[in-house]
Amino acid sequence: MRRADRLLQIVQILRRANGQPVSAGKIAEELEVTKRTIYRDMVALESINVPVRGEAGIGYILEGGLDLPPLIFNSLELETLMLGARWVEVHGDADQQIAAKDVVAKIAAVLPDELREEFFEVSLYAPAKTKQRFVGAVSSFELRKALKSNQVIEIEYQNEAGEGSKRRIWPISLGYFDFKRLILGWCELREDFRAFRADRIVSATVLNETPPVSRAVLKKQWWEQEQAKPPDQRVTS
């Protein structure tokens, strides 16, 4: 890899970290070079005023103020984008399927001719394992809107045995598993994290209430709790 390409890749790695420190060792491992090479590259980046801040024993952070032109996609990135778009076209909601096609069209419009051809000819697909599709009284489009609003959701829910209950949940995320949808949140009734199957939600009302804890904090707490559990004791509804 040319040094100029490596410097751009280092910037991309730091961007991907989203403000979290990345060690020289981790960068070196990804780029398959030595840590000494990364140290020299960091000096080079600083010399051209790239706002990289490093702390001994912690790592490097890309601070704000970087003004670089958009980077062209490489072959692996194009493969990944197309695979993701094709997955959404099969498994996503109706509006997401249209959005996936729009994304492909927009990307293709700015690619050079040779890369555009390569993009459309990516031979990676994500076929559904079943002909079943998500069906529920509450659409996952409505659940996504509730997540964006970051407000408490009141749901009427039926468990596997058909028993109904009313829950107030602080939504965290919505997971897609072929034709199934799982909404993860803090359940006030159980005073714990729960994952609810969207097809078992009879009704959902977005309340004019904001959870007392941010979604980011809830997600962190849930993840830490999950990591401490044995595999057979994961989140259930």
H/E order of the elements?
A: HHHEEHHHHEEEEEH
- How many structural domains can be distinguished in the coordinates? 3
Number of strands: 7
> What is the CATH class of the largest domain?
Mainly Beta
Average of per-residue pLDDT values: 87
State which percent range the strand residues make up.
15-25%
Largest sheet, in brief, is: 5 strands, antiparallel
Outline = globular
- CATH domain topology of the largest domain: SH3 type barrels
Task: Kindly describe this structure.
This protein is α+β, with helices and mostly antiparallel strands. The protein has three domains: 60 residues, Winged helix-like DNA-binding domain superfamily/Winged helix DNA-binding domain (Arc Repressor Mutant, subunit A), CATH 1.10.10; 46 residues, no CATH class; 94 residues, SH3 type barrels, CATH 2.30.30. The chain has eight helices and seven strands; from the N terminus they run αααββααααβββββα. It has a five-stranded antiparallel β-sheet with strand order 6-5-4-3-7. Strands 1-2 form a two-stranded antiparallel ribbon. Strand 4 and strand 5 form a beta hairpin. Helix 4 packs antiparallel against helix 5 and helix 4 crosses helix 6. The longest helix has 17 residues. The mean pLDDT is 87.
Keywords:
8 helices, alpha+beta, 237 residues, 3 domains, Arc Repressor Mutant, subunit A, globular, SH3 type barrels, two-stranded antiparallel sheet, five-stranded antiparallel β-sheet
